[in-house]
Write a sequence for this structure.
């Protein structure tokens, strides 16, 4: 017999933030933690550079290909859309997904180049919504101290400064402000991990009763 009362979908846990804020480190640590504890969990990284669209994005980010700002924006968005069926199936099947970057990076990075913020949001309308956004917040001075930025297109101090402000604006404009967990990324790796585990276990425990959100 089916017992719907014990059915639980997976949680969609999203990490967002500027470059060099420790996002990927924490996302990976959380993934390993949940795996060891026996949770059904998958890790997802955007942009997913392995698909044909992702390969074009990679060529753009590594400065090997030029593309119009709006065209690359739409490719980043398409890269998320192409993953939706798989992500949706996993979540409905009870697997928690830890996602490193998503549409919030999409809007923040593109709007920071001067594209209209509301135009930037359009192509992501209808994507699955995360259950929580763990936002790793760090001043650009601090992130630069951490061994400096890399060689990729957006990894420049002045630009990162604007991206950080745009992320803050997105949080402010979000109707669902409770979705955002802003963490001070200056703390130690272990201290941050403890907070992230606590937040995530709570989300995993409680999101099961809620439908997946699209919008
Ligand atoms: P990462 O692999 O996390 O270092 O991301 C690569 C770079 O691309 C990083 O500087 C952030 C940026 N980025 C990630 N997603 C998007 C997006 O959807 N749109 C734009 N314009 N930039 C993005
Ligand atoms: Na990067
Ligand atoms: Na992306």
């Amino acid at each position: 017999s089916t017992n719907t009362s014990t059915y639980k979908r997976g949680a969609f846990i999203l990490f967002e933030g500027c470059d060099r804020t420790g996002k990927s480190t924490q996302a990976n640590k959380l993934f390993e933690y949940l795996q060891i504890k026996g949770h059904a969990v998958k890790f997802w990284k955007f942009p997913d550079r392995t698909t044909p669209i992702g390969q074009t994005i990679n060529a753009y980010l590594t400065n090997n290909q030029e593309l119009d700002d709006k065209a690359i924006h739409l490719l980043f968005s398409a890269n998320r859309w192409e993953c939706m069926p798989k992500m949706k199936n996993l979540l409905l099947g009870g697997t928690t997904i830890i996602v490193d970057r998503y549409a919030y990076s999409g809007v923040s990075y593109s709007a920071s180049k001067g594209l209209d913020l509301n135009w930037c949001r359009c192509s992501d309308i209808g994507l699955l919504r995360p259950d929580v956004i763990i936002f790793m917040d760090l001043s650009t001075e601090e992130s630069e101290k951490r061994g400096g930025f890399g060689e990729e297109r957006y990894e420049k101090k002045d630009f990162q400064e604007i991206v950080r402000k745009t992320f803050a604006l997105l949080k402010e404009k979000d109707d669902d402000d409770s979705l955002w967990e802003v963490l001070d990324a200056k703390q130690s790796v272990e201290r941050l991990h403890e907070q992230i585990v606590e937040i995530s276990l709570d989300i995993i425990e409680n999101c099961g009763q809620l439908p997946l959100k699209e919008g």
